[in-house]
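Field guide to reading this record: the first block holds the primary sequence, the second block holds the structure written as discrete tokens, and the final block holds curator observations. Each block starts with its own label. This record concerns Acyl carrier protein, catalogued under organism Streptomyces globosus.

BLOCK 1 — SEQUENCE
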Amino acid sequence: MSTTDIAGEIRAYVVGQFLAGEDTTDLTGDYDLIDSGVIDSLGLVRLLSHLTRAFDIAVDDIELTPDNFRTLDSITAVVEAHAPVRAA
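BLOCK 2 — STRUCTURE
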């Protein structure tokens, strides 16, 4: 899965779960999801659960710091760093 595919899947999840019906034109890769209130602590738990299922990542492998989940770009980087490599 490419970086673009991962970022697109994560963006779709964030929009669908946390911004349904909202204008998402400002939701760029570096938009701060935590400081803006898009994702709160419960939202982080839900997002983490989604990432583990969608990308087959073990929770123990992810460093649970706010900076890893602050933006779509940082979330994408975490997934790329921890997702199992799939054969083509």
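BLOCK 3 — OBSERVATIONS
The CA atoms of residues 39 and 46 lie 9 Å apart.
The mean pLDDT is 90.
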